[in-house]
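I am still getting used to backbone structure tokens and would like to learn alongside you. Would you supply a protein for us yourself, any chain you care to pick? Start from the sequence, derive the backbone structure tokens from it, and show both lines together. Go ahead whenever you are ready, and we will take it from there.
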Amino acid sequence: MLKVQGKGVHQCDSGWVPVFVDQDKSISLMSIGFLLEKPDDAVVWRGPKKNALIKQFISDVTWGELDFLIVDTPPGTSDEHISTVESLRQYMPLGAVLVTTPQAVSIGDVRRELTFCKKTGLRVIGIVENMSGFVCPHCLECTNIFSKGGGEELARHARVPFLGCVPLDPQLAQCLEEGRDFIREFPKSSAFPALAHIAQQILDRTSSQSS
């Protein structure tokens, strides 16, 4: 998505140097994918080894001065999620953004993640509903392929903020696959205002804590 395939992580006196997306070093990345010899290699590790690497990614990477540190995790409430929360606790994390799709199976996963956040004392910034309808690029009619409203209903039931819906957009998917700037290339897409609205809400809800 960010055109950093093939780049490697370097070592310095203070730890690992992350991979930078641009020359201005405005976005830095760290992933286990940068440490593999081949991109198709599977990571067959038991829990303790994975948990140790998570802690290294947080404490042994020379992140420098950051506006935000975003940890992207797969759905679930595994040991890796617990290790991530515990490793970040000393830095007072601002919270979690939970992403769901409208289907009942996905809603069930996020419901368990809400319980996880409550038990670990992690604030929920809000819920986002992804793949929320398909907007035809020709007639602009929206079709709810995967039903609708599951994320908003879950947020209402859990009494946490609902940040918004992101519709399916082939242009967005293509830009992500090719590492292109979707916001600059398709400012009139229906996904653009949705993403901008969600991002602004996250900034508004975290700015008072981070300042």
